[in-house]
Amino acid sequence: MDNPKHVAIIMDGNGRWAAQKGLPRIAGHSAGAKSVEEVIKAAKESGVRILTLYAFSTENWKRPKHEVDALFKLLENYIDSQTDILIKNDIRLSVIGRIEGLPDSVRRKLKSVMDRTKSGSSLLLNLALNYGARTEIVDAVRAVAKDCVSGHVNPDDMDEKAFSGYLYTKDLPDPDLLIRTSGEMRLSNFLLWQLSYSEIFISKKLWPDFKKSDFVEALDEYRNRQRRYGK
Ligand code: IPE
Ligand code: IPE
Ligand code: MG
């Protein structure tokens, strides 16, 4: 089989990585940002076209405020330091999630980087921010209901393809491969609809330790999988 076109990653284990080193959790998040840079490069080199990274879930607001604040500060710094590099590497940045729920300064920066990278065509870097799959599905159902009430949509025409068009991922193919680090075997409310038939690769490595060779290993394993889709 060919390399996956769309890879989605649940980047997990930053806190445990820091704890193992006797460092504050945020040091783990900083170290994780380096893995993000490395994996973006590896994805591009492998011909992956879309990389969706789970960066902040709708449930992550339940973390202590200082950790949440630090995560968004880190995201802002990441955008500031990487925008020119993304442009140079022909990478486009996009976002899925309830963007309106993000802090204003983060939204402004995201809007600007999305604008400045919009002609990037080698890789789509898709950040899941304030993302929750159940929220996404509820938002979609609400939009469908409105379109039915207003007469734009006939309920009998609603099928899987039409419904997909109401999700944040409406312009994207489903992920071929899902990677989760730190050995956890759960989806944590990530892309519940879109991952229906994705191959799953669980790495024992904590996210800050997940490097190019680990990404390449996941792709190697993917190519040896047999996708059956129930056939
Ligand atoms: C993933 O690492 C990063 C985010 C969820 C933002 P964690 O912060 O979940 O690290 P662990 O799972 O506590 O080790
Ligand atoms: C999932 O990791 C969310 C992100 C990677 C952004 P969590 O660490 O929040 O998930 P749980 O709490 O282990 O399920
Ligand atoms: Mg975690």
| Annotated CATH architecture | 3-Layer(aba) Sandwich
For the record, the CATH class is Alpha Beta
How much of the sequence lies in strands comes to 15-25%
Count of discrete structural domains: 1
Largest sheet: 6 strands, parallel
Describe the structure.
The protein is an alpha/beta fold. The protein has one domain: Undecaprenyl pyrophosphate synthetase, CATH 3.40.1180. It is built from 7 helices and 6 strands; from the N terminus they run E-H-H-E-H-E-H-E-H-H-E-E-H. The chain has helices at residues 14-20, 25-45, 65-88, 104-116, 133-149, 160-164, 212-223; strands at 6-10, 50-57, 91-96, 123-131, 177-180, 199-202. A 6-stranded parallel beta sheet has the order 3-4-2-1-5-6, sandwiched between helices. The radius of gyration is 18 Å and the shape is globular. One 3-methylbut-3-enyl trihydrogen diphosphate is lined by residues 11-16, 56, 60, 71, 182, 207.
Describe the secondary structure blueprint for this structure.
Layout (H helix, E strand, L loop, with lengths): L5 E5 L3 H7 L4 H21 L4 E8 L7 H24 L2 E6 L7 H13 L6 E9 L1 H17 L10 H5 L12 E4 L18 E4 L9 H12 L8
Parallel strand pairs: 1-2, 1-5, 2-4, 3-4, 5-6
Helix pairs in contact: 1-2, 2-3, 3-4
The site of one 3-methylbut-3-enyl trihydrogen diphosphate has 11 residues, from strand 2.
